[in-house]
Amino acid sequence: MFELKATDLAGRIGLLTTKSGTIETPALLPVIHPSKQEIPPSLIKEIGFNAVITNAYLAFKNKGEEARNNGIHKTIEFDGIIMTDSGGYQVLEYGDINVNVKSIALFQEKILSDIAVILDKPTGAQLDRDYAERSVELTLKAAKETLAVVTNKEILWTGPIQGGVHLDLIERSAKETSNLNFDIHALGSPTEIMQSYDFKKLTDMIITAKKHTPSNKPMHLFGAGHPLTIPLAVALGCDLFDSASYILYGREGRYLTDYGTKKLKDMSYLNCVCPICCSLSLKEFISLEKETRSFQLGVHNLYVLIKTVNDCKEAIREGRLWEYIGIKAKAHPRLWEAYKNFSENIEFLEDGVPIFKSKGLFLSDIVDNSRPEVLRHKMKMKNNIRFRKCKLLLLPETMVKPFYKSRIYSNLKKELGSIIDQIQICFLAHPFGIIPIELSDIYPLSQYEKALKPDSDSNLDQDMVDDIVSIIYKNKISEVFIWIEGGYTQRLGEAVSKKIEINIVSSIEELRNKL
Amino acid sequence: MFELKATDLAGRIGLLTTKSGTIETPALLPVIHPSKQEIPPSLIKEIGFNAVITNAYLAFKNKGEEARNNGIHKTIEFDGIIMTDSGGYQVLEYGDINVNVKSIALFQEKILSDIAVILDKPTGAQLDRDYAERSVELTLKAAKETLAVVTNKEILWTGPIQGGVHLDLIERSAKETSNLNFDIHALGSPTEIMQSYDFKKLTDMIITAKKHTPSNKPMHLFGAGHPLTIPLAVALGCDLFDSASYILYGREGRYLTDYGTKKLKDMSYLNCVCPICCSLSLKEFISLEKETRSFQLGVHNLYVLIKTVNDCKEAIREGRLWEYIGIKAKAHPRLWEAYKNFSENIEFLEDGVPIFKSKGLFLSDIVDNSRPEVLRHKMKMKNNIRFRKCKLLLLPETMVKPFYKSRIYSNLKKELGSIIDQIQICFLAHPFGIIPIELSDIYPLSQYEKALKPDSDSNLDQDMVDDIVSIIYKNKISEVFIWIEGGYTQRLGEAVSKKIEINIVSSIEELRNKL
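Above: the input entities. Below: the structure tokens describing the complete assembly.
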């Protein structure tokens, strides 16, 4: 039912099969209003959305008869995949004694939803713990009640995880919901968190939910429809999204861009080449009659969202999801904060990172020093690599990669002849640390591009000093030679020599004499 | 002839008036081949390019008669603004005794170019200094020869600056070319530098050329047509660009994205919503017959380029050029390297930064600590601000802005009454440093968004310690109180107290007792 095709970080590309067809995830499902939809679902499909979501409660209220008789696909006129949200929010907000968990469940079966959601009790951003706890319990109760009454095995059922900002409640909710064997899980109602750009909190919430649900099931994130939120959530392992943002923003005169929203009236240029933006000027766009403008903005916004989803998928396929999130993160300090905090969750994020990628790593910033591929090498050096030789020569990183093709190594081999076989040779390559020559052509140790040339780091690289000292202790090295070439290795040599006895060399003659 | 409308960093939006109309800069002029043009200029205009460039030498060789009789506009069938490049590159490469500086100049006059370029001697990326020096001299000679023979005052003439990677030669070339009073300046032939992604070198070259030419004239950058290069060059003050990249990439099966190029055949998704990419699937795109594919790719690439230029202009209008370059920089380590190096050229970059902006600053990364608006405040504190009071109270940054609206300040005012008037109150807000309460609502001191909450910086903020010590010395403060609230201010307090006598307080009672 859900087949993984590719992964990077915790993000994945998957194929989700429903009774109305298969959809590739990550996928965003635009919200369709069952009776007051402004942009026709057929146009939404044409833009590239093969699945949509509509609201079972609103369909029940406004189009109950029609939906029961003809099915939801004919009712909203969409022949792709239809998910129905239960309407938990609406029921919570307006109260309605005519519906209950069971009736909403059976209604979704009756109208032949492809993906259905139990009538949950959203926690919202409630800080009140008792309230949050109760919403978790009521949602679990509704989950059990629903699964007990539904019979159509072709419909995929979604079990929402509640708990709001209370991570321990999310954990409990995730664990207990997982036991019920839903087809899909969903993280409930982080809308307010997303609206306040609290990406760090959102990260914690998603990771908690993901850690305590089976990884072979899709994770839906309710209400995410922003070009910064979707990439973050994708990287954290969310597979499905639903949002009415395209039209809500449209009604408010808001224009999505790759990095956020702008008010159309505040803009000076149309930063988009979608069919809408190619067909009219900014001035014309602004002066459209309100309803038409809202419609056109909605369509433009859908184009930006489909591009966002495709960008995420392309980044996963390329193995460049870390780089892509970095670009997005630079667009907003609160997202940068969350991105910077990725280093606290490397174990979780590393899982999906392939051992080999077709593209090299981009290493620009201090944040990149703790990306999974870098830490993986450090762990390997710490836990798996033992040297047989007792002499160690540390050479500076070279621009030529793999390092064994560098001039410095060729010269050493030529000049020292067989002596070199008695020495373990390693290169010092920030941020990887120590790279034994034998590993130097293994991905990504010769497939990376750095912001700074090897010698231009201005400060002492304390991590590298620690790496050197620890590798020497671990490997019972009796003699260490550090090749000094410029300020970076100079500073390293000085710092290491304070902790351990080493030989500093800067020419082959010097090395030969000391050997 | 060239009117500035808005600036940010060294970037600017201008209006350049030619005899065929006015164009808003920054503007990219797609290269049109005078006889073998694949994408019709009319389509290029439709995409949004109101000016193009073509090659005078190639027009002379292939369409000389027609161009002389009917003018270049009819010859290449473009009714917008036409710049003609002289063909210096082609003449250099192939040699041609049938043309010379004078004949190429008069030909450009005859065919009624709107913007013409003298027949220069491109330095290229030649490291040979003698060669570079000679190209500077020959270009200057050609410049003088050209200006001596041309008579049509309606044509704008461009004086190229040569010198290649030799910054002192660029300086000399820029200074001497400036003396000749050209309408437009141009930086010659950094193509190889751009192709090797040496953005730092490119930055140095552009800044050198800009510093030594009059700022009220447009600066053209030859051969820049990449979505990472254009934003960088715009931020550094380049106004005009020309490039054949759209079609050259197209012929190689290369697809432009917002962050670079990809080979169409390596892609998994079309990351674009331009009319081309909306009209066919990736699979269809790949399997197009070569010539059609090259055409369609060319058109797609033009859409990406016009979006890039519009993004730059929007960023200038918004005062978000720093942020925009940061986003682009995260896409490639070599661009990040150049961006990081902006701090070395703050005086140059600061010039165009408005004192007040409509949008707040985004401060995410250590690089942002040296953005012009931040350094401006630091300079102001250092040079212009003197306190009259001799008691100083340093309070931690608050989430509420302006700071005088914070709870901590309201409480102090309420509890201390008139005593507070005898104390100079400042807030400690990284990366700005010290913010006197009187300045706290002046842009951007209450209009910024930071990645980290005030207290979560993990290391000691040495800049802040230095700022505190220096402000105390400068202002003859007799008593200093630092309000401690969490680790950040704790560490600051400890570090400052090692250098100077201070009172540490953490409640109003404590403060009252010590006053």
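Note for the figure: The radius of gyration of chain B is 28 Å.
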